[in-house]
Design goal:
It is built from five helices and four strands. α1 crosses α4 and α2 crosses α4.
């Protein structure tokens, strides 16, 4: 697919078929995301691939708004940034996540970005904690690593 076609076809997909996403496609998306530019070439972005249905369902509960559809995605990729490498981890992760989504489109997959960083679990109750705190505990993410977003991916249900 030509780059201009990828750009034209990319859109947020929130409904997925039950078809699994092959590991080869996942690996190709990650490989593209790893080529994304980063501040001072710090390469501060990292990716956690989740394919376990129960874990994906738990991830979908990270926020009271905007994340419920994630439960139906066959794969979720958590986009992480190493804040010990650079204070620009958010910017680096955003570029990496964009590359990831463009790669998904090029490979015939749909995807949707769900923001995590600085989002409350319950929008009407900031004291409920953050989506990031919830996911870090759920997924066992070590200190120094931050979560910008999760990318839900799969074959689009039409």
């Amino acid at each position: 697919m030509e780059f201009s076609e990828v750009i034209a076809k990319r859109h947020s997909v929130r409904k997925f078929t039950d078809a699994p996403v092959g590991r080869d496609l996942i690996d190709r998306m990650i490989a593209v995301a790893e080529t994304a530019p980063s501040s001072k070439n710090t390469r501060s972005s990292a990716f956690m691939v989740i394919e376990d249905h129960d874990t994906i369902e738990a991830i979908s509960g990270m926020r009271d708004r905007g994340s419920a559809f994630v439960k139906d995605a066959p794969v979720v990729i958590v986009v992480l940034g190493d804040e010990t490498k650079t204070d620009l981890w958010v910017d680096n992760c955003a570029i990496s996540a964009t590359f990831l989504q463009l790669a998904a489109t090029d490979l015939g997959l749909g995807s949707c970005w769900v923001h995590v960083n600085a989002r409350p679990r319950v929008s009407s109750d900031p004291a409920s904690g953050t989506a990031e705190e919830y996911l870090k505990e759920l997924l066992g993410i070590k200190d120094g690593m931050r979560i910008l977003c999760v990318i839900a991916a799969g074959f689009e249900k039409i």
